[in-house]
Specification:
single chain; mainly alpha; 7 helices; 5 strands; disordered C terminus
Length: about 180
Amino acid sequence: WPEAVTTRLQPGGSLPIHIACTWHASAGVISTLCRVEPATCRIPDELGNVPLHCAAFSGALAPVVDTLLCVFSKSVLARNQQGSLPYDIVKRLTHENRKNVLAILKMKKEEVLAAHHTAAMVSNSWNGAAGQGMELIGGCMPNTSIPNGMPLGNSIGENQAVVNFGKGMMRQAEMSNEEMIWI
């Protein structure tokens, strides 16, 4: 059944983890899906939502958000096709656990950015920092494919990135050096 966790559903291109996060699965279910194939936490659906976005939309409980962030902490910096971070989504909605989840997302974002800045200071160059950042997220380098052959992203300019969301949908975005972390 490991292949099942990387099978996209149509329409929408969701993986089972996207659906589980959307429909209020427990932290145990999310943990099991992540354990079988951790890379699924990095994969966006056709709208650019990684599983953390889906959890944010559905008002997932803090343990679900924690589980997703433990597997892929940089998802806290992922923007969907509307340009929204998971934090932005939670902030707009009125779920009961909103304050707890906002605090978790804010703390994790600060941790991820602090780790990035530390790596940049150690390497003393942007290229070195980018390479160290890749090591922090499990060695996934630019132009590397993840399950179903979908590339994570490609660098095109000093402050630009192109993100491939599958099926030919691509988005070019201007980014500051602070935001330009491969996710």
